[in-house]
Design goal:
The complex is a heterodimer of chains A (86) and B (414).
Chain A (H helix, E strand, L loop, with lengths): L7 H12 L5 H6 L12 H15 L13 H14 L2
Helix pairs in contact in A: 1-3
Chain B lengths: L8 E9 L6 H10 L5 E2 L12 E2 L7 H4 L2 H4 L4 H16 L12 E6 L5 H13 L9 H4 L4 H10 L5 E4 L5 H14 L4 E8 L4 H7 L30 E9 H7 L5 E10 L5 H19 L8 E3 L6 H15 L2 H4 L1 E3 L11 H16 L1 E2 L13 E2 L5 E2 L4 E7 L4 E9 L6
Parallel strand pairs in B: 4-5, 4-6, 9-10, 9-14, 10-12
Antiparallel strand pairs in B: 1-7, 1-8, 2-3, 6-7, 8-15, 11-13, 14-15
Classes of the chains: A mainly alpha (86), B alpha/beta (414).
């Protein structure tokens, strides 16, 4: 369980690391309702981010997390899961 | 465009990423000068292996050529392929956005896929656990990866395919692309690139009895000589743009060469004596398709396996298929200067053939000075010659044989 939430900063860094996508935290936040593919992130890229977060926080994320369409939807889902504990 | 008779498939673009040159002009200069770049393998994690000499593509910087989002999900073999494809499209005047994406297809040949990427992810699997394996493992190490990524990166939505038919598949891919063009696809991006110089990939090759483990770069790969001790592997490759001749002329781009004829046969893994008949039949088939008499062949780019039995079979196959002309025609094997890049080897040879015809020079066979077969092998220096038709030969360790006839582009188009 974590007490601080996964932020746009962390998501931006993960998109770079796992999928080679360059998008600043600010751009990500401003376009948080835009679909991931508008940033160039494909489904395997999102799957890699989910895997990285699971390893980082030692906790499984729900299957729906890799189906999230937008950054907002994704962060809401994983943060509600991570802060609630496994 | 659909009711006209099938036209000829012609080469209008060339992109090369080779150990001896990372652009077409650099490659040709090295090939023409007979510069050998075989060297001790410098890749990390390879020093303990008995394979010491190879043709490495050094100071290749994929990050300077390819976007991060393609780099993270691809192996080095696809990096070479994407870089070469972009060069070829640019050379053909098709850089930038493609106006009719559904009319441009991609076909590549691949011999081993993405070994380095695969090794990295498998090490995560066994070192840390399955949750640490990245999802791009599912696509990066497959034979098909380069075709897919070239298609996605370029927005090319025409017919795509992968030829997995052993080393000679490099020539088969050119035939495949030419057929696609004759069936009505405007443009095909075609060729092969390989990256077999990483620890896992190298271990996979150690079982090949044909592999040279000689550790002197000047002596490791000397086909057609009494000292032939096997072949040396290489990385890199070449992609070509093949399109309909009429379309090329309408676009007003130079026709570099005509893909005139091809045939392939199979005679079994490492059965080099049998490859004589297989290769001879491939040559005859390619000549037939090209409507080309043996005497019209002005230069032969040999397979040059570097294994005495295989070299003998090839020399005999050339004589069998070309008759007396087989002993007179200039034969060359520029790959002795760079090694064999598996499926990419015959594609690089095809590029060398096109450029040789362009420049009127038969390039030499580096590191080879005294041969023990009845061939007119060009050695030491390039030989000036009027070259209108070239024959490119290729064999694979698993038993495939192929021959390709290419003709010089029409001078009037230049």
């Amino acid at each position: 369980m974590i007490t601080t939430e996964v932020t746009f900063d962390e998501l931006s860094a993960l998109m770079k690391q796992a999928a080679g996508i360059t998008v600043t935290p600010r751009e990500l936040k401003e376009a948080a309702e835009s679909p991931f593919d508008s940033f160039g992130l494909d489904s395997l890229g999102l799957l890699g981010i989910v895997g990285e977060l699971e390893n980082r926080y030692g906790q499984s994320l729900p299957p729906d997390s890799e189906r999230c369409r937008t950054p907002r939807e994704f962060l809401n889902l994983i943060n509600s899961t991570l802060t609630a504990g496994a | 465009m659909s009711n006209r008779r099938p036209g000829r498939a012609v080469v209008t673009g060339i992109g090369v990423i080779a150990p001896n040159g990372q652009r077409t002009d650099a490659y040709w200069k090295s090939v023409r000068e007979g510069i050998g770049v075989l060297d001790l393998i410098s890749r990390e994690g390879c020093d303990h292996l008995p394979l010491r000499v190879a043709g490495e593509v050094r100071s290749f910087d994929p990050a300077a050529l390819i976007e991060d989002r393609f780099l993270v999900q691809t192996d080095r073999f696809s990096h070479f392929a994407m870089a070469a494809a972009a060069l070829a499209l640019e050379d053909a005047g098709l850089g930038g956005d493609i106006a009719e994406p559904f009319s441009v297809g991609v076909v590549t040949a691949a011999g081993s896929g993405g070994g380095e990427f695969g090794q990295r992810e498998l090490q995560k699997l066994w070192g840390k656990g399955s949750k640490f394996v990245g999802p791009y493992q599912s696509i990066a190490w497959f034979y098909a990866a380069s075709t897919g990524q070239i298609s996605i990166r370029g927005g090319l939505k025409g017919p795509c395919g992968v030829v997995a038919s052993d080393e000679a598949g490099g020539l088969d891919s050119l035939a495949h692309a030419s057929r696609a063009v004759r069936r009505g696809t405007d443009v095909m991006v075609v060729g092969a690139a390989e990256a077999p110089l990483a620890p896992y990939s190298m271990v996979c090759q150690l079982g090949y009895p044909e592999l040279s483990t000689v550790d002197d770069p000047a002596l490791a790969y000397r086909p057609f000589t009494e000292k032939a001790s096997g072949f040396v592997p290489a990385e890199g490759g070449a992609l070509l743009v093949v399109e309909d001749e009429e379309r090329a002329r309408t676009r007003g781009v130079p026709v570099r060469a005509v893909v005139a004829g091809h045939a392939a046969t199979f005679t079994g893994a490492s059965r080099w004596a049998e490859s004589r008949e297989g290769l001879a039949r491939a040559i005859s088939g390619a000549l037939d398709e090209a409507g080309c008499a043996p005497e019209e062949i002005d230069v032969v780019f040999a397979d040059a396996m570097g294994v005495p039995e295989a070299d003998r079979a090839e020399a005999l196959a050339i004589a069998d298929a070309l008759g007396a002309h087989g002993r007179r025609v200039p034969v060359t094997a520029p790959k002795t200067g760079i090694g064999r890049a598996y499926c990419a080897a015959p594609v690089l040879d095809t590029v060398a053939a096109v450029l040789a015809m362009d420049h009127g020079q038969v390039p030499p066979t580096p590191n080879v000075f005294d041969i023990c077969h009845d061939l007119d092998l060009v050695m030491s220096h390039a030989r000036p010659a009027e070259l209108r038709t070239a024959l490119v030969l290729s064999r694979g360790l698993m038993g495939s044989n192929a021959a390709l006839v290419v003709r010089r582009g029409d001078d009037s188009a230049r």
